[in-house]
């Protein structure tokens, strides 16, 4: 029997990425919930460098960083691939996953915590440009991976689900059907996918957490 453990946090889109990949592959695993306000000795032992979730443990070997873990999962369990087998297409999938991580998600986090209205406006414009670029990459497909969910879709899970809750709490109107109809259609397809549904945190619980953390400012752009 293989040992597969995942250290995660219920609210973390990064932990949920790994759960989604494991479920798409049909890999059984033990989930160990972490309290990031009071980090466990297990987490500090398994991820002494960053001390963050997710951490995957496979037969005694540990690894961190969700995008790194996704690639490991795809190579270790090759059924139901989440990365293309063609070298160029694989490289491009990695590129877009990194684009989402650094430009899209990174920009959203800056907007969420920015207190200066003028600076926030500039950040919103930058994020909108990133979303327009990302929307163009769908190229009429159901998912970024084509007909099936792939690594780019998994990397974009925060946009697919968490962002909607953030917009509800904050009043921010960044990604709307009028502005980004193609991206919003992808979001609908993503959250309705049967396996994705199994890995999403409860919306009401997520809403309450973001409301407690962000307050309820009126950010309308």
From TrEMBL:
It holds the Pfam family GST_C. It comes from the Eukaryota. One of its GO terms (biological process) is glutathione metabolic process. GO terms for cellular component: cytoplasm. Gene3D superfamilies: 1.20.1050.10, Glutaredoxin. Keywords: Transferase. It catalyses: RX + glutathione = an S-substituted glutathione + a halide anion + H(+). Its EC number is 2.5.1.18. Residues 2-81 form the GST N-terminal domain. PROSITE patterns: GST_CTER, GST_NTER. Residues 86-218 form the GST C-terminal domain. One of its GO terms (molecular function) is glutathione transferase activity. It is an enzyme of class 2 (transferase). PANTHER family: GLUTATHIONE S-TRANSFERASE U8 (PTHR11260:SF676), GLUTATHIONE S-TRANSFERASE, GST, SUPERFAMILY, GST DOMAIN CONTAINING (PTHR11260). Belongs to the GST superfamily. This is glutathione transferase. It comes from Linum trigynum.
């Amino acid at each position: 029997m293989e040992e597969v453990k995942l250290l995660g946090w219920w609210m973390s889109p990064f932990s949920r990425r790994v759960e989604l990949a494991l479920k798409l592959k049909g890999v059984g695993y033990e989930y160990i919930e972490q309290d990031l306000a009071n980090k466990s000795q297990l987490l500090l032992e398994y991820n002494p460098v960053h001390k963050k979730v997710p951490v995957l443990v496979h037969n005694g070997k540990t690894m961190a960083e969700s995008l790194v873990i996704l690639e490991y999962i795809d190579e270790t369990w090759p059924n139901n691939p989440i990365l293309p087998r063609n070298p160029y297409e694989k490289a491009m999938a990695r590129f877009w996953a990194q684009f989402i991580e650094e430009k899209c998600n990174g920009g959203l986090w800056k907007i969420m915590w920015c207190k200066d209205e003028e600076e926030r406006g500039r950040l919103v414009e930058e994020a909108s440009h990133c979303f327009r670029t990302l929307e163009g990459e769908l190229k009429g497909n159901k998912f970024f991976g084509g007909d099936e969910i792939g690594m780019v879709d998994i990397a974009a899970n925060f946009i697919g689900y968490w962002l909607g809750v953030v917009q509800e709490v904050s009043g921010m109107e960044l990604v709307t059907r009028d502005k980004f109809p193609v991206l919003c259609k992808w979001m609908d397809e993503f959250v309705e996918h049967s396996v994705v549904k199994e890995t999403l945190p409860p919306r009401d619980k997520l809403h309450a957490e973001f409301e407690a953390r962000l307050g309820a400012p009126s950010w309308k752009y």
